[in-house]
Amino acid sequence: MDRAGRRIVTRLPLVAALLLAAACSEEKPAPPAPPRVVRVVKVELEQGGFGGQASGVIQSRYNAQVGFLVGGRLIERKADVGTVAKVGDLLAQLDATDYKNKLAAAQSEVRAAQGEVGQAAPQEERLRSLLAKGFTTQVEYDRAMRNLSSAKAHLDSAQANLRLAQDQVAYTALLADTDGAVTAVGADPGQVVNAGQMIVTISQLTAREGVFAVAERGAAYLKPGMSIKVALQSDPNVAVEGTVREISPTADPVTGTYQVKVSLHDPPEAMRLGAVVTGSLEIKGEPVVVIPAGALLQTGDQAAVWVVSPDKVIQRRLVKVLRFDAETVTIQEGLKSGDLVVTNGINSLAEGQKVSLPPGVAP
Fold first, then answer.
1. Does 48 have pLDDT greater than 70?
2. Domains and CATH numbers, the chain
3. Nearest to 203 by CA among 79, 80, 61, 63
4. CA 259 – CA 246 distance, rounded (Å)
5. Whether the model pTM is above 0.90
6. Bridge partners of residue 303, in order along the sequence
7. How many whole angstroms separate alpha carbon 183 and alpha carbon 203?
8. 227 with 242: CB under 8 angstroms?
9. Any residues with CB less than 8 A from the CB of 257 and at least 6 apart, and which?
10. Strand partners, 290
């Protein structure tokens, strides 16, 4: 073997050693990451609907703030809080001296105007007869006619002033125009009051209703016309059916509750104005599912959740939301009993992703 051949034979073992070292130096592929552990909740169907109670008070639907139509000094108030008034009862009286003087002046003005008409009418009649016979001029008759028209206009004005003066004298006596109980007073004898100022407040006893402060969740279920059971808080056996009449569109800025007014059907006498009552409502609905608020995926108008399949694969499920609360979401459609809904890390999951469940949770 020549020298060149010996060099080739000598290098072959060296090349094989280098290849073997390179193969050994290659890193082994990393093992696949274990499936991500997710927290889930197993959902169960619950009976839908709403039931609850709220406390309120009995009030009158109609509360009239009654006052004088004229101003003056109050000399008498016959009604106090708690007084039961009938139509026509005297509630208060103003000093009518000034208004009676105005009435006397109006009466005198009417008598003077009647005298003017009494003089102008015969004169006009006489000149009309003479004009027809040609014994007077048209100018003279026209003057008599104007005097008669002016006298009649003066009489009409005086009579209108007389009626106004008579009304003002009558207005100094404040009379009840409806049956009810006095629930507030606004002036005392000796006080000078203005026209329209509240003297007493009359609440009608025949139009009683329950007024309740209802939380936002409860108010969302209520609709005008719904039937509500109203009972005395001190004696639940005294109860009556009522109908939701009015729901406040805005919440109270302090309590955050909504005012709900319930008309009562033939309330018993025990439900007096100011009595504390309890309103009860129960509404049945379709079965629903309640899940934590953090489990809901919301994309535009579509709501969805991640559900873990029996083979531990993530699946996106569209759902229909019935209502939102502070910490929970009520699902109306899309879930069934036994579904495992993911409650953590929902924004980092993907459709078809393999996951692992916590110990003790079976798919």
1. no
2. 40-48+287-356 (2.40.420.20), 51-60+204-284 (2.40.30.170), 68-95+173-202 (2.40.50.100), 97-170 (1.10.287)
3. 63
4. 8
5. no
6. 298, 319
7. 7
8. yes
9. 213, 214, 215, 216, 219, 251
10. 330
